[in-house]
Design brief:
The protein has 645 residues and is α/β, with parallel strands linked by helices. It is 51% helix and 13% strand. Strand 17 and strand 18 form a beta hairpin. Helix 5 crosses helix 6. The longest helix is centred in the last third of the chain and has 23 residues. The relative contact order is 0.11.
Amino acid sequence: MKGQEFLRELNEEQRAAVLAPDGPILVLAAAGTGKTRTLVYRVVHLIRRGIAPDQILLLTFTNKAAREMLERAEAAAGAAVSGLWGGTFHHMANRILRRHAPLLGYPPEYTILDREDAESLMKRIVKSLEVDSLLFPKADVLLSLISEAANSGGPIEELIAGRFRDLSEATQMQIREAVFRYEKEKRALKAMDFDDLLVNGLRLFREHPEVEAYYQNRFRHVLVDEYQDTNFIQAEWVNRLAAAHRNLFVVGDDFQSIYGWRGADYRNILEFQKVHPETQVFKLETNYRSTPEILAVANACIAGNPRQFQKVLRSTRASRRPPLAARVRDGEAQARFIISQVRRLLGEGVRPDEIAVLYRAHFHALELQMRLMREGIPFVITSGPRFFEQAHLKDVLAVLRLMRNPGDAISFRRLIRQLPGVGQRTVDRLWERLGGMFSALQSSARRTLEGLLPRKAVEDWRRIASAWEAVERGETPIKALDVFVERFYRVYAETHFDDPERRLEDIQETQRYMAKYDSLDAFLSEVALMTNLEAEEESTRRQGAPCLRLSTVHQAKGLEWRVVLVPWVVEGMFPSARSLAENPLGHEEERRLFYVAITRARDELIFGVPELRQMRDGGIMFCKPSRFLEEIPKGLLQEVRLPYV
């Protein structure tokens, strides 16, 4: 592409950003406005101006994004882009550290530990500590905590004390020792894990000004994608790199800052002008994705957040039907409604893979998953395994199944393996000595098993068995799960999963769902039926047939579909009650998350708004429509109330 012909492919907003004079530049690129094109063409423009490619640094968050941008830059500018420094933050930090690692006490050929390597190292360290209980954090949980400390800058001691407050002080001391040994072992191995690349990349600049000065002079222009997702390390590293020439070009959207829970700090984009007072700000507001009606709802929704750069999306699309908010009786009615909409869309020629159901939390799709399986509609979940395939729910089902089937060796093995000092051989030997039968609801059987267990396992065994004791006393299976969680599984979840609160929330949802069934047998039969149907559906997915997509909103960021359906748009669900309770500013991030869900839709947007929700005790809770819907002016939504059936 010769001369400035590539500029014809840009709209006025994009062109202004691409051609902006040198200096710090903040491009606020709202959803669907062509941020990637703007960033790529800024690179092309710099090269056309005579900037050497090896004086340009382009930073992204994923390898896929880096490849796409470099390929598009090459397509626009040809071989002239050869030599451009482009890649993820971790990739670029590693490239610099390979040259200067000896200054930090590492050889240039230091090893990078992948997740499996790091987990293997931590497992070896935990084993060397000879912890006397299974209720000690698993290696991957400890690594997640270390990563959180690295990315948030929070003291690891405070994170340990907060996360494992239910554990004894002695156990917390062992956790701190494990973390200390992990860091020490990495140094002895001359190795860095993934987070160390960023931490040491910043440390290199802080401790060695001569190295920092070299790269500051080398990179005349630094460009950053998805700036709203940067953490404090990445922001400082970028600011240092751009300090000499002051040519820092960042693209992002504060409206789509939804990863605060994993270290991203949206203040980096909000306060960019404070750090760089001479900043030029450009807004991309022309949207090529969604209809005017969908964007009107998106604009109204996000306007409720006071601390942000106000932007108004404008559509280039023709008008279509307004988004639909359907009031339905409950979750079951909502599932039926969603399926009716899917069948309508398929009948109109929309492909299954052009339809997505996006939800705030995994358990919001439970009723829908069950009904999709019953009706034989293929679907794929991109936010993790199907609901009852998750490890923590298999643990809960094992407790329930042993109440009904004393010969269930699989459930027996699953629970007993959770005890300290009990490996596979021990479990097999126990099952054999019990005669291939364990009557969980008989106290004599529980006492017999207790007498066969290793001494270190007895205390935790009694905690598990207390759930069955509750049933013997006349409690319901639903109540028995409360006992199981409070006496044993809460601490187990805290030490075995990096998202324990979400897991416990799923168990509560399971209890709520159980309340719909007349008996435990009916519930377990339904789950077993769904599991068998899932096996059949798996073969369909392997053959590559297009499927309906189910996903959390977090997993859907950056994607789009012709039609998006959002269930459980009610208070406590979306926004999440847990998020609001844990974070004083949680309502702002929840509103941004809702905005992201809305802006994934191209042609149609449908909300499910149940009016009732059955509780664990069989009672009914009335649901209030989400504040995010209530804030949308009348006339922007088509509202319907489906009759109770």
